[in-house]
Amino acid sequence: MAQPTPRADQPEEPVPLREKTALGFGFVTALGSHNVVHVTAYSIYNVEMGLSPALLSVVLFIQRIWDAALDPLVGHLSDNFRSRFGRRRPFLAVAVLPLAALFAAMWLFPRHETPQALFLYVLVWSLLFYAARSLYSIPLLGLQVEASADYHERTRLAGFTEIFFAIFAILPNWLFAVVAGPLFPDAVTGTHAMGIALGGFFLLTGLAPVFFTRERAYSRIARQQPRTPLRESLGTLVRNRPFLLVLGMQGVVTFGYNIVGILGMYLNYYYVYGGDIRRGAIMQGWNGTFYQFGAIGSVFLYRRLSASLGKRSTALVAAAILAAGSASKWLLFQPAHPWLQLPIWVFNGAGITGITIIALSMLADAADYEELRSGARREGLYASILSLVTKIGYSTGALASGFLLVGTGFEAKLGGAQDPHAIFLMRLLYTALPLAGALGAAFMIRRYPLTEQAAYSIKADLERRRVS
Question: What does CATH list as the number for 17-212+236-467?
Answer without folding.
Answer: 1.20.1250.20
